[in-house]
Design goal:
The protein contains seven helices and five strands, in the order H-H-E-E-E-E-H-H-H-H-E-H. It is an alpha+beta fold and about 180 residues long. The chain has a domain of about 120 residues. Strands 1-2-5 form a three-stranded mixed sheet, with no helix packed on it. Strands 3-4 form a two-stranded antiparallel sheet. Strand 3 and strand 4 form a beta hairpin. The radius of gyration is 19 Å and the shape is globular.
């Protein structure tokens, strides 16, 4: 290892600065998905239902600094507890580094693109619903199989609402959804 290597390859997790630690988060939002635990096996099963604080447009916590105030069971990741948190996705940078594995190629620190987690399909963007729209009794209907893989790639585009060429109805017709 050389001093030219990125900080996450040079330093153990417990030696990172606060800024370095926070930058490891790829912004996937998967840690904010509601998980169920099988009472018999203890297996953790993820749903596509997110914490009420997750902004589904950015995959960021809308109340990050004071999230525990609003969601008391929100877990704060630390170098000390990351190895014990089996509900984190296999692609989580904190988990990967704790396991001695490299970051994924699509991680923003590796790619240099803050949207790469979304464009690679490794986030909850366009794949989740807020818990405010789902009854607890319906959670089992929202179990997913893409938590640790099965990326869905998205092309992020910016839409100008003032663009006269943009027509919602025409877009629906070309998508085969006809009106």
């Amino acid at each position: 290892m050389t001093s030219d290597d990125p900080f996450w390859q040079r330093k153990p997790l417990d030696k990172l600065s606060r800024e370095e630690w926070e930058s490891l988060c790829d912004g996937c939002g998967k840690c904010c998905l509601i998980k169920l635990e099988d009472e018999d096996s203890g297996q953790i099963i993820a749903t596509d239902v997110t914490c009420k604080l997750l902004d589904l447009g950015t995959c960021q916590c809308s109340q990050y600094p004071q999230r525990s105030k609003y969601v008391p069971d929100c877990v704060t990741l630390t170098p000390e507890n990351i190895g014990d948190l089996n509900f984190m996705p296999a692609t989580c940078a904190y988990r990967l580094l704790a396991e001695g594995k490299p970051l994924e190629d699509w991680h923003p620190l590796v790619s240099g693109d803050p949207n790469s987690v979304h464009t690679s399909g490794n986030s909850v963007l366009n794949r989740a619903v807020p818990e405010t729209e789902v009854e607890d009794a319906e959670l089992e209907d929202h179990v997913i199989d893409w938590f640790d893989g099965d990326a869905v790639k998205w092309e992020l585009i910016e839409i100008d609402p003032d663009d006269e060429d943009w027509d919602d109805e025409e877009e629906q017709d070309t998508a085969g959804n006809g009106t």
